[in-house]
Amino acid sequence: MLILAIDTALDACAAGVLNTDSATMIGQQSLPMQRGHAEALVPLIARVIAEADISFEAIDRIAVTTGPGSFTGLRVGLSAARGLALAADRPVVGLTTLAAFAAPLVGETAADPILSAIDARHDQVYFQVSGGDGTTLLRPRVAPIDEAIAAALRFGAPRLVGNAAQILAARWPSDAAPPVSVDAKPAPDIAWVAWLGAAVTPENSPARPYYLRPPDAKPQIPVVQFAASPSA
């Protein structure tokens, strides 16, 4: 199966193509950016499809991050994924950014929980706590930084991952067991977005925005333009 993965929810504009039969990413690119996703995304997808040396019609499924993240950024990725899926008559699935951050750490050790966290500003974070085997210990939520740390410590010293990992580490209580590891990343690895997209089903993972609180503002959403039948 060929999976086209798209991520524009945070500080990157990324796309990649996973071939699940060979278990390889046959094309991928990620551009660090805080703004400008709408202009960058479609040309980036075209380059990734060309790098993969396939036609767009060969794609079997599209996976896209749904948030939490930048209100405008995640809407850009979602509108592009939905539009491309509609044009090519392909299924599209949505994955949370928190799950994508946690995915590389799942299976490394069953003993250490995973605290994936995204900066929500105003001294708050979006976060979830997962077991080392991938089980959900705390569902995604938004909370003040100190409350998020206290919630995670109920399950033991965690591994921190996400764009707020260093923020949490800096506020870690001196009388608590320190984090096992701190992996600060501006955005999820697009390869893991693709692998999660291969593992879920469209019925259980809809491609719609995943909000944990209302956006601070509701800007006009940029229109993402794309060809009806893009090809390599």
How much is the radius of gyration in Å?
A: 18 Å
Strand content: 25-35%
Briefly note the structural class of the backbone: alpha/beta
Strand order of the largest sheet: 3-2-1-4-5
Estimated helix fraction: 25-40%
Q: Say what oligomer this is.
A: single chain
CATH class (first level) name of the largest domain: Alpha Beta
- Number of helical elements: 6
Q: Spans with pLDDT under 50 lasting ≥5 residues?
A: 226-232
Name of the CATH homologous superfamily of the largest domain: ATPase, nucleotide binding domain
Strand tally is 10
| CATH architecture level-2 label of the largest domain | 2-Layer Sandwich
Task: Report on the biggest sheet.
Answer: 5 strands, mixed
* CATH topology descriptor of the largest domain: Nucleotidyltransferase, domain 5
What's this model, at a glance?
The chain is of the alpha/beta class and 232 residues long. It has helices at 37-52, 71-88, 97-102, 145-153, 165-170, 190-199, and strands spanning 2-7, 12-19, 24-32, 61-65, 92-95, 114-121, 124-130, 136-144, 159-162, 181-184. The chain has a 5-stranded mixed beta sheet with strand order 3-2-1-4-5, sandwiched between helices.
Describe what you observe in this structure.
The chain has six helices and ten strands. It has helices spanning 37-52, 71-88, 97-102, 145-153, 165-170, 190-199, and strands spanning 2-7, 12-19, 24-32, 61-65, 92-95, 114-121, 124-130, 136-144, 159-162, 181-184. It folds into two domains: 2-97 and 188-199, ATPase, nucleotide binding domain (Nucleotidyltransferase, domain 5); 98-184, Nucleotidyltransferase, domain 5. Helix 1 (37-52) packs across helix 2. With 232 residues, it is of the alpha/beta class. The strands form two sheets. Strands 3-2-1-4-5 form a five-stranded mixed sheet, with helices on both faces. The protein starts with a strand and ends in a 33-residue tail after the last helix. The model is unreliable at 226-232 (pLDDT under 50).
